[in-house]
Amino acid sequence: MSTKTANPLAGEFELNLDRPLTAYWLAILRVVTGWWFFHAGVTKLIEDGLAFGYAPMYLKGMTGTALGPIPVWMGTNLAWLVEPAVPLFETLIGLALMLGVLTRLASVGGVMFMTLFWVGNAGFGHGLVNGDLMGLMLFATMIVVGAGRYYGVDAVLERTEFVKQRPRLRYLLG
Amino acid sequence: MKSNIETIDKAAMALSGGLMLLGIVVLGFVELLDGAPYGAAPVTNDAGEVVATPMVDPALRTGLVLLGMAVLLVWGLYRYTVPPMDVDEATATEMTAD
């Protein structure tokens, strides 16, 4: 006679990354996070093209933060690069996440953006844990779990011979 | 471990995911393609008057997302009362000892 106790949390309801519920939810999170960035980027592209002048201004205003003089220096000396890079990379990061292509690489970009938003917005009126930090954590989660493997193109790419022969690519895909 | 996912589980995931993605992504694209305002907030002029409103009512979009969440909640409650059948147990056959 079986002595197994029925466990309603067993099977697909436990937090193993290969379980259907976890895969489903990670895919939803990835697409929603991707849409968030895609929308932010593409609306800047529609309204300002590749000349998003607010970006260098924002960076120049980041004085006295944990990032030291780096953002101010970037806003002052790299304005020509920052202006097109912000809308372009937000859009590309968003697209990559929605499709699940190069998910980890794109998410690293997302972490960089969110770091600048979190540190730069800096009001911290409701504490250090705010929406920007949550966004940063979301992108970090995409990297940790390799969210592109769940209903994403990376799942297909990782099965190709090209990637199998170059396993380090899985640090960029996944 | 084999998956013991059932049709109702697949249906719940598809319905809730579909509703949430419809509210956030699909109607978001519709809003984008419709032109300004590209987001869910109306456009106002310097005097604070609304000069353009979103094509899709934000209440509809948020409602769809909440409905998707509600499906997840109902599914969770259902699974709390009717646990999925354990695959190992379902396929196990009783053997007599020699």
Verbal overview:
The complex is a heterodimer of chains A (174) and B (98). Chain A is mostly helical. Chain A is built from 8 helices and no strands. Chain A has helices spanning 20-48, 54-60, 70-77, 79-99, 103-121, 131-145, 153-157, 161-164. Chain B has one domain (8-82). Chain B has 3 helices and 2 strands, in the order αββαα. Chain A binds chain B through residues 2, 4, 6-8, 10-13, 19-21, 24, 27-28, 31-32, 35, 39, 42-43, 46-47, 98, and chain B through 1, 3-5, 9, 13, 17, 20-21, 24-25, 28, 32, 38-39, 79-80, 83-84, 86-89, 92.
Tertiary shape of chain B: elongated
Number of structural domains of chain B: 1
Mean pLDDT across all amino acids of chain A: 88
Strand order of the largest sheet of chain B: 1-2
Return the string of H and E elements of chain B: HEEHH
Straight-line distance between termini of chain B: 29 Å
| Shape category of chain A | globular
| Order of helical and strand elements of chain A | HHHHHHHH
Alpha-carbon distance between the two ends of chain A: 43 Å
User: How large is the radius of gyration of chain B?
Assistant: 23 Å
Average pLDDT score of chain B: 84
Radius of gyration of chain A: 19 Å
Which residues of chain B form runs of ≥5 with pLDDT under 50? none
Query: How many strands appear in the DSSP assignment of chain A?
Result: 0
> Structural class from helices and strands of chain B?
mainly alpha
The DSSP helix count of chain A reads 8
Number of domains of chain A: 1
**Approximately how much helix is present in the residues of chain A?**
55-70%
| Largest interface, C-beta within 8 A | A-B, 24 and 24 residues
Biggest sheet of chain B, in brief? Answer: 2 strands, antiparallel
